Amino acid sequence: MVLIIGGAYQGKTEAALEIAGEEPDRVMNRVHEWIRGRMDAGAGQDEIREELFGIAECRKDMIFVADEIGCGIVPVDVFERKYRETAGRILCDLAKQADEVYRVMAGIPGKIKG
């Protein structure tokens, strides 16, 4: 499993597709938005983590792509703070399990694990 993180519009998708090569269906883009959608639907952190790790278990070659959302001002809104914390914690857990982790900045993927 591979995790690619970075700021918005930094080239994460392009890096993921390059790693995927001839298998673009390996890429699960916008994981942070998927987490938010599950929270909007009422799912808790443990349930979301279980679902995401279930996907990772079924597709060990999956490439997960997510924006870093915790590198800014702490939101005033309670839900936004909870979302930021939930996404951050789940992505930390995903990084621990990943074989490789990349951080993309200005279109340049830097390997930080694996």
From TrEMBL:
<dbReference type="GO" id="GO:0009236">
    <property type="term" value="P:cobalamin biosynthetic process"/>
</dbReference>
<keyword id="KW-0548">Nucleotidyltransferase</keyword>
<dbReference type="GO" id="GO:0008820">
    <property type="term" value="F:cobinamide phosphate guanylyltransferase activity"/>
</dbReference>
<comment type="pathway">
    <text>Cofactor biosynthesis; adenosylcobalamin biosynthesis; adenosylcobalamin from cob(II)yrinate a,c-diamide: step 5/7.</text>
</comment>
<comment type="function">
    <text>Catalyzes ATP-dependent phosphorylation of adenosylcobinamide and addition of GMP to adenosylcobinamide phosphate.</text>
</comment>
<keyword id="KW-0547">Nucleotide-binding</keyword>
<keyword id="KW-0067">ATP-binding</keyword>
<dbReference type="GO" id="GO:0005524">
    <property type="term" value="F:ATP binding"/>
</dbReference>
<comment type="pathway">
    <text>Cofactor biosynthesis; adenosylcobalamin biosynthesis; adenosylcobalamin from cob(II)yrinate a,c-diamide: step 6/7.</text>
</comment>
<keyword id="KW-0169">Cobalamin biosynthesis</keyword>
<keyword id="KW-0808">Transferase</keyword>
<dbReference type="GO" id="GO:0005525">
    <property type="term" value="F:GTP binding"/>
</dbReference>
<comment type="similarity">
    <text>Belongs to the CobU/CobP family.</text>
</comment>
<keyword id="KW-0342">GTP-binding</keyword>
<dbReference type="Pfam" id="PF02283">
    <property type="entry name" value="CobU"/>
</dbReference>
<protein>
    <recommendedName>
        <fullName>Adenosylcobinamide kinase</fullName>
        <ecNumber>2.7.1.156</ecNumber>
        <ecNumber>2.7.7.62</ecNumber>
    </recommendedName>
</protein>
<dbReference type="GO" id="GO:0043752">
    <property type="term" value="F:adenosylcobinamide kinase activity"/>
</dbReference>
<keyword id="KW-0418">Kinase</keyword>
<dbReference type="InterPro" id="IPR003203">
    <property type="entry name" value="CobU/CobP"/>
</dbReference>
<dbReference type="InterPro" id="IPR027417">
    <property type="entry name" value="P-loop_NTPase"/>
</dbReference>
